[in-house]
Fold this protein.
Amino acid sequence: IAVTFAMFRIITALFLRDTLALAANDAELVVEEKMKQKQSYSEKLLDFFHRADTNQDGMLSFAEFDLIMRDDKVKTWLSVMEVDIHEPREFFETLAGGHHVSPDEFVQGIMRLKGGAKAQDVMATFRLCQHMAKVLANFMRRLEAMEELNRSQQQQQQKLQQQMKDKKRLSNPKASSEPVAMLF
């Protein structure tokens, strides 16, 4: 019985080892296939960018983007690519973060926005938060500068008031309850 049990354990271990090796190869194949799909998708988006860049300046403006988005075939193609664009201006502003978008920004932005509206909403919120963080940081710098200026002006005002009091005491020593010699 012990020998049979040992043989059974050895056969099970060999079977398990082979199964795990096959699974590891399958995982590698899946990763490799996903990477090929991503590369193909990026190339298609880059081709789309160059077709949309009608003035060939290497940057895509909203006017160029809007023009190509009027074509129903383009909308359908993008939908097949899992990029649904309902509001071209909002989508472009989310994608570009400005007035123009470079090829890399376009491809990377579309890759991030690929999928349902939830991804687009998150990206729009992310851009808005970035903008608000910059505005807030600028506001805080200005506020700190104003506070510093206010402190400086208050100190100057206090010095002037003290100088005026001292001058008044020196010019009218009898009105002061402190001896003049104490001021020197």
Notes: The chain has six helices and two strands. The radius of gyration is 36 Å. Residues 117-171 form the longest helix (55 residues).
